[in-house]
Amino acid sequence: MASLWDDLESLVDSPSSSAAESGQRGTIKPKANFDAEKDAAALKDAIEGLGTTNEKVLIEILTQRSNGQRQLICKAYEGATGRTLEKDLKGDTGGDFEKLLLALITPPAAYDCHEVTQAMKGAGTKDSVLIEIFASRSKQQIEALKDVYRKETEKDLIEKLTSEVSGDFSKALILLAKGERDGSNSVDVGKAREDAEKTLYKAGEKKWGTDESKFIEILCKRSIPQLRQTLVEYKNISGKTLQQSIEGEMSGELEELLVAVAVKCVKSLPAYFAELLHKSMKGSGTDESTLTRIMVSRSEIDLLDIRAEFKKLFEHSLLSNIESDVSGEYGDCLKPICGGDD
After folding, report:
1. What residues have CB less than 8 Å from 54, skipping those under 6 apart?
2. Which of 80, 105, 130 is the last residue of a domain?
3. Can you tell me the mean pLDDT for 57-74?
4. Is 126 a domain residue?
5. Are 210 and 152 found together in one domain?
6. Distances (CA, A) of 238 to 11, 156, 197, 198, 264
7. For the residues 162-174, what does the mean pLDDT come to?
8. Whether 91 and 157 share a structural domain
9. Quick check: is 294 in a domain?
């Protein structure tokens, strides 16, 4: 889907995607007149009531409160029942619906940490999950993720990643996980031109055999505004986009990571997530884990922007795609997180 990412007009002047972390573009906001004890009591009744669990109450409360408010509900619930809400949800719900509810009551950094840990479990690392998280999260989010990992395992995440992945893909992923990207908002046009011409162009298009290390160093360390300028300069010099060059010169996980981190997330995080959401629901079978992860993790950050990009790219709304692709309590819970039609 390279054509979605070829337009470089206005790229340099567009706001940094990571700035959306202020929460102004999320679909879920803190509830006014919030009462954690009242919500906890309602959840207790919904779970302990005669007969089956009242899923509607679970959905109504947990999708209409901010994550910070949900943490207070969890505390109040345990105080009232002597049990954790997590344990009770695991006992009374199941499948993708259960996983979605558990994601909603998990603090964002812990949720990211658990997703990364799960991706490294068992035979074969789920590289696509690692790429999505480390390519899209801010420096602060990655630090918070690593802190949770350290507290929960008493181990270092960088060391674990190093043992799980290898080659040039490992070098790039580790740089991102170390949080070595420049956080500056200033742009050095001369440096961008030099990176584009003397380093990236010479290391790729102009060279017999690609020098991946040069690509990794620049694309994983330069600031977002600086990389945006570099993309423009590269197109001016080479006549093709950096994404086209990466896809022509590289393959496998390294190609996927560099395209994600250096092109898609640099240009537009909402468009990147819109594409991943579309892919998760395309064709036969739904990738529920990706669908859940993106809907929950972006619900208080930029899901409104993701919805707008989804409509622009695929000519139908995210909500309509969810309604046609998933059903049952899982679908009923995703719809209020989505927050409306477009």
Report:
1. 45, 46, 47
2. 105
3. 98
4. yes
5. no
6. 18, 41, 8, 12, 19
7. 92
8. no
9. no
Share of the chain above pLDDT 90, in %: 73
Provide Rg for the chain, Cα atoms: 21
Domain range for 156: 122-178
247, with CB counted inside 10 A (0-12, 13-18, 19+), is middle
Report the pLDDT averaged over residues 258-262: 87
Question: Are both 157 and 202 inside the same structural domain?
Answer: no
- Amino acid letter at 162? T
**How many whole angstroms from its chain centre is CA 257?**
13
Q: What is the pLDDT of residues 4-48, one digit of tens each?
A: 556 655 565 555 544 455 568 999 999 999 999 999 999 999 998
| pLDDT over threshold 60, residue 264 | yes
Which amino acid appears at position 129 of this protein? V
Instruction: Please tell me whether residues 174 and 204 are part of one structural domain.
Output: no
**Whole-structure pTM value:** 0.91
* 41-47 long-range Cβ contacts below 8 angstroms, 24+ apart: 41/80, 43/73, 43/77, 43/85, 44/77, 44/80, 44/81, 47/88, 47/89, 47/92
Domain of 257: which CATH number?
Answer: 1.10.220.10
Q: How many domains does the chain have?
A: 3
Q: What CA–CA distance (Å, rounded) separates 110 from 277?
A: 22
